[in-house]
Please model this.
Amino acid sequence: MSDVVLSVETLVKDYGKFRAVDSISFDVKKGTIVGFLGPNGAGKTTTIQILLGITSLTTGSIKYFGKDFHTNREECLQKINFTSAFNTLQGRISVWENLLVFANLYNVNNYREKISTLIEYFEVPHILHQRYYDLSAGQKTRVNLIKSLLNDPELILMDEPTASLDPDIADKTLSLIENLKLEKNITILYTSHNMDEITRVCDEVIFLDHGRIVAQDTPKKLVRRIGKADLELTIDDNKAKVQKFLNENKYNHKFRSNNTVNIQLHESEIPNVLYEISHLGVVISSIEIKKPNLEDVFLEIARSKK
Model:
């Protein structure tokens, strides 16, 4: 049996003459968390809406669990769910009534126990009988997450799930996401603008720009593509010697003071630079290395497409 939970092939979405999604193809394997990233207007939201059946595709195909979404829509939707910090439930009814509606839609067994367990985990039992409309943004986000877990989905589409959350609750949410993967082997397609979150929870990352996939790999391998690093040294009073060495070897650098220099170079060059400077008779009292991260990858891709 295939371990591919979601398969997207040559997906296209046109709005008149504007192509919002341009022939993208990707697979999401069971038990993985895939980050779906891109700048505003890249086509992420349109793709998610198509995957949920909210928006129709122009051409292409979507398969959940090996079955065509178009012809097996109800069956597929019973096995997936969606959460977004920007999505709202029914404002005039209570949290309990909202969750009860969705529990019945998904035919959840022991729904009272399930709702109680999730409410306790997210530390919001006190809001159970409040109107959804009256909740804070963080409380609404937590209720939306609870809703998305009611039917024990095999795949969850998560759109900015930690937006508006306090840092401790955001961390708890990320821990839950990690536990869902480890304990239930659940699959998640995860969008966020927080690169630290993506690096923490995602096994693979897909970068979308102008409706096309422009990069796809693990976070570590994507970061290695940049290779650049910032090396900051605090030295004794030998600025002239260090500056001469850096100029002669054409290293991009900037002295922040007579004793502090920032050098931009490839990671592989760091040991040699440290060795050469130390052999100039220069005393290095402090070394700080800033390696590239996923945010640097994001910015480089965004800038290269402008």
User: Anything to note?
Assistant: The CA atoms of residues 21 and 47 lie 7 Å apart.
